[in-house]
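Re: weekly structure request thread

Next one in the queue (190 aa):
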Amino acid sequence: MTISINEVESGMGLLIDGQIYIVGEYVHVKPAKGSAFVRIKMKSVKTGNVLERTYRTAEKLDDVPLDERRMQYQYRSGDEFHFMDEESYEQVTMQAKDLEENFIKLLQENMRVIGLCYEHQVLRMSLPNFMVCQVVGTEPGIRGDSSRSGNKPATIDTGALINVPLFINKGDWIKIDTRTGGEYVERVQK
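Done, posted below.
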C-alpha cells in the first residue's frame, strides 16, 4: 500500500529498495526558503542497519503492515529455536543466524517474547525490556569493601556474563535491561 510522507509514523514498516525497515525517528522540516521535507531514520528488520533518508513532501512510500505477536520460547535444537504463538498455538522455528546475539544469550526457558511478523512470516524476535534472572556464579562480595568501586562479572541463569555491583552474591535475583545487552538495574526479592 502506498502512503504519503505525511502519514509516516514512528514504529511503522516501510519497504525501501526491496528491504523492510522500521521507522525510528522522523522530523518534518519547513525551511524559510524552499519546500518542506521529511527526514526519516529507519532500521532494517533483517540486518539491523540504520538508514537515514530525506524525502520531499510530495513523495510516496510503500507501507508494510507489520504485526506483533506474543510468543513463548519452547526449546533449542542445534541452531534452531522453537517458539509457540500464544494466540494460534502454532509452532514457529527460527534459525540462530536470524536472531540477534543479545537475544540468544538472554533467552530463558518458557520466556514470553514478541515476534514481529509480515504476511504470517516472523521477521524478528525481541525480548521484554526488563527481565528478572538469578545469579548462578560470581565471586563473593566482601562486607565493607568500599576500596574498590565499580562492578564485578557474574554469570546469570541464561549463561550470559554481565557486570553487577560488588554486593551481589551467588543466588541473588536481579533485574536487567535487555535493550542494553543485560545491564544490571536492581536487586529483586523473590
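The first helix runs from residue 101 to 106. The domain at 67-126 is CATH 2.40.50.140 (OB fold (Dihydrolipoamide Acetyltransferase, E2P)).
Next request, please.
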